[in-house]
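Supplementary Methods S3. Input chains for the assembly prediction are listed below.
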Amino acid sequence: MLPRGRPRALGAALLLLLLLVVGFFLFGRDPECERRSWAGEEGTLCDRCLLTPRVFSDGLGTTATLDGDPYGSRNRSTSSLQLLLPPKCEMLHVAIVCAGYNSSREIITLMKSVLFYRKNPLHLHLITDAVARNILETLFRTWMVPAVVVSFYDAEELKPLVSWIPNKHYSGLYGLMKLVLPSVLPLSLARVIVLDTDVTFSSDIMELWALFGHFSDKQVVGLVENQSDWYLGNLWKNHRPWPALGRGFNTGVILLWLDRLQQIGWEQMWKLTAKRELLTLTATSLADQDIFNAVIKEHPELVHPLPCVWNVQLSDHTLAERCYLEAADLKVIHWNSPKKLRVKNKHAEFFRDLHLTFLGFDGKLLCRELFGCPNQFPPGAEQLQQALAQLDEEEPCFEFRQQQLTVHRVHITFLSHQPPPPRPHDVTLVAQLSMDRLQMLEALCRHWRGPMSLALYLTDAEAQQFLRFVETSPVLSARKDVAYHVVYRDGPLYPVNQLRNVALAQALTPYVFLSDIDFLPAYSLYDYLRASIEQLALGRRQRKAALVVPAFETLHYRFSFPNSKAELLTLLDAGSLHTFRYHEWPQGHASTDYTRWREAQAPYQVQWSADYEPYVVVPRDCPRYDPRFVGFGWNKVAHIIELDAQEYEFLVLPEAFSIHLPHAPSLDISRFRSSPTYRDCLQALKEEFHQDLSRRYGSAALKYLTALQQSRSRA
Amino acid sequence: MLPRGRPRALGAALLLLLLLVVGFFLFGRDPECERRSWAGEEGTLCDRCLLTPRVFSDGLGTTATLDGDPYGSRNRSTSSLQLLLPPKCEMLHVAIVCAGYNSSREIITLMKSVLFYRKNPLHLHLITDAVARNILETLFRTWMVPAVVVSFYDAEELKPLVSWIPNKHYSGLYGLMKLVLPSVLPLSLARVIVLDTDVTFSSDIMELWALFGHFSDKQVVGLVENQSDWYLGNLWKNHRPWPALGRGFNTGVILLWLDRLQQIGWEQMWKLTAKRELLTLTATSLADQDIFNAVIKEHPELVHPLPCVWNVQLSDHTLAERCYLEAADLKVIHWNSPKKLRVKNKHAEFFRDLHLTFLGFDGKLLCRELFGCPNQFPPGAEQLQQALAQLDEEEPCFEFRQQQLTVHRVHITFLSHQPPPPRPHDVTLVAQLSMDRLQMLEALCRHWRGPMSLALYLTDAEAQQFLRFVETSPVLSARKDVAYHVVYRDGPLYPVNQLRNVALAQALTPYVFLSDIDFLPAYSLYDYLRASIEQLALGRRQRKAALVVPAFETLHYRFSFPNSKAELLTLLDAGSLHTFRYHEWPQGHASTDYTRWREAQAPYQVQWSADYEPYVVVPRDCPRYDPRFVGFGWNKVAHIIELDAQEYEFLVLPEAFSIHLPHAPSLDISRFRSSPTYRDCLQALKEEFHQDLSRRYGSAALKYLTALQQSRSRA
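Predicted structure tokens for the full assembly:
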């Protein structure tokens, strides 16, 4: 078919070979030049820098001429790289040390920037503490990005390996762990890119990986020169940095040639150097970076200097500006100032915009498949795709079916959180909300002094707004016992029960109060519930009980919250308060028996009746909410049926109450209330729920079906 | 400084020259090959395709081998392009025909994708109808993207040039206008990229521009082959497409070599062809594309076939899949099915995600400067930057100052809109809102049957949610007399008066009712206001009057709206209604004199008093709101003072009323109500406002200052 192709192909191959040879001759490393350059001699600009033609600036051979740039010589070494790119579908390995809540958020923004540009499968090796592992395991499992594998390594186990090193850097022990990666990562792993969590990519990580191809046989670690004068010393009196070659190197981005490091006895090497330096220096100032630099000072042949664009450092006194001439030059931005985004810099706004782009980027849009790469789908993803593909778009309840199948990306404990100390009668308030209920949080915090587990249904951009909202609220930022779990929006229907289940699963106390975000509990409720649990000896007798918190509502917008049951009853009698949904949906709380409650002095048992949906306190291991109920309607009713079917007894607490505040109907409600299809689909869901119920509980579930049929015949 | 550089630089230059020469020889055009290829001969794969090494796939020489791909030969012609890239800072020209509301939205998403990847200054040549011009002029003026120049050309003037061509395509006359671009664009313009509004870039447009460098001397138009069998004919009985070479070419992306087109007498050429074809064909089916193809069939030497990745066509029966092997290959995606994003396609989800990325992309983040390019800032941008830079970040009211200076990107008439017919007494309801008040819109539409001009403060992503909200609401989508103007969020404080001014400036009737979004007007208000305006002969006598619509409020969440003044008075007496903010801020409406209003049968005049802030009907040319009031507080008060200072008489209408519905405090309110700094800054704003007032109105403004001082001494 292609007879005329061959001679030309041969010609092209020859040309390429020629290019390679001449390129090597022209652009190859010049050890003398390099040494002078990274030794920090100002004005040393190696020749090959000037030889780079201006090629496509998103490509490999970019970065313009930088007169007097001390990093220049290294910036240019990429231009002959085009032939060394990894083959399509080759797995690239990335290792990141990550601990705590804030770093877990950072790493996600970093990963979004990597995923946006990447074209290769990635294997992430995450060295995490328990907090980060918990967060990131859930996140990646629910994110379902094709062609991304994640492995976790326990940072706890690595602590003894580095804890003997005194360290003043804010990253603490975790920063030092980069030193021990060669002994921690699997032996089968030959090379790995190591990243700090505070970097942002603006290019394809494959290009960085390709730089391994430029290592000489002896080079084991690729690093960008440090873009500040720190290691030159004398920044202030008695400023005595660790030894380094010239300005030294920055370890925010590292290419590690792992098997070679093993071969040269890296572990002994860095330990020896560190111990020797620590004889005269009291501690590391910049964690692993000081030690990497001290080793390199001693063994300069080990380092492969990387182009500075692969680690543009935005510290306070950065010299990064010398590194790039245009935006296209930038490959990786490193927010290595403790001021992070607030750092001052000539192009700070540009960098911030790039970072903000990924901060608010919809992570779902990054679930792009890599065309033509095999086995890229994470566990469950293909089945999910198939199930979704089998849905009939023309079916009236299509949106419901689709929403039920949707796996939402979940970021548990989005903000710093202090788990409650283990207490046998403690209760966590569990609720869910979206952006339009954020203003309830402060009041809720004032009313409920105990732990809370709240699921928030947000877009990525809203999650950032939420973060700022909490940071600027003295009430909210003071509370470390409130855990916020972000469930990312996806689809047109509100996944109310999936949200409740996320919040419920993350509650850490033995009991949970299953509430709704527009209710304010009595000020005394938290203490009262704990006392009741203790008095009723729920824990000890393994009594299966659901404690009912009677629900009220005010239709008045301005309203003075009752401080006691007596005050509440007065307001009730005055008509300022009503029992909840008394006018529209009395059956929802009828079983609570408000008349009896008025007089009650002790908890009393009530029986389930159709459509009962009280707010209850139950053990944390209670049944989950049925996730088929998306949108609005019947989502709590089904849960209460489940409790009843599992023989929980409903005990109404005589001093407990909670009051619903008025609010505009949420967008999701108003959008569907008016739709007849919506109501039909809800009916279909109810029927399916009852079929499942019969399957699981047999004839015991008959009463629920009867109740449903009765209510349908009434309708 | 660089003595060793020169000989090597010389060597490199020689190498490049060699590359160029050999590259031209190897990769240069082969007319025989090309003709066979675009003549649609299956399996003709030209040699140079195979010669392309797999280079960086975001770069120029990408796209993998496609066996049997009829476009293959063209896909590959880019690999030797690296030397032909435009120099840094070279201006690239882009022409787009755009008419109507929907295309104006489309073009913005297209531009976001272009701006995200671009590294060169751009000059946009927009051929627009009045609607699109109005929208896009405002948008680009307020967007202030560095290094983007926009010129407008009146499509109306071009209509006679193409209206003689019968056309069945949905783009109507506007599609045909691409034919006359060579005679419309400035003579000084040698080359231009022409784009349809329904394309999305996933690469740097500079790479597309660079393809001009591959034109032979005779080639004048660059096009991608059509990726369907349309022009092959016989798709159904009597399917008779216009003549084309093989599959023909698609005109969604065109490289036009304008001066050459002038030279070859393009205008005569296409007209001649079109007229001749129209002797046998009744009309064009695909607008300009049919005519371009007919001309090319006759003069194949004019076309330069472009790699198919520059116009990946997602029509229903697309063959586009043959064009790319991996995502990185894709350069421009063309949504050329009337189904747009809902089109079915193997990789539809991938394409949709890319499009959605830019749909919701924060346009502000694209205001990135091009490092090192001169004169890139649009009018006013540099002064604005300087003013912002001069603000003191440590000053307590810094956020206020910053917010006041912020120029918000404004998209007027975001959705389809039918301007009201000119009527001398017509009134437009003017209000502003953010996402958390969207649920008010349906009720507002039921209460106010006249035109409305509403400013919405949204993020780009929220604007898309809003679009879907309106589309799925039968009430809202039926109303074409409601103009929605999107003002894009930027900064922490709510720019309430800037929003009001946007809505006010876009009102098209002689009178405006300046309302707030949480008020529902009496059902009769629209008719009553028009009658009152007529009766009071406001227009004729040039009487400067502000008609006061008395304001009430309900604190009850569920509430039955009064159908008449009598019903309202009953509710008022029953305590279900109150005069607005009677409890917290009685001075706001005290001057309205509700006692007199109860009995009034005719309009009565009232005098201004301190803090008066009634809702009024005024002529459209009334004073604007003072934009210094950002956040909440005093924003309406200042406007009423301005009206009083300009000697508007306040006439209270006896049958008019409007009722405030309860709602949760907005996030913006709750965030700042509690802050003492906020109140201090508001006080400072008030004082500055009064200083300006004295400056403008002299001693007449004294009474306002006195009132302010009295209120301060009371506080």
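The first strand of chain B starts at residue 92 and ends at 98. The radius of gyration of chain B is 31 Å.
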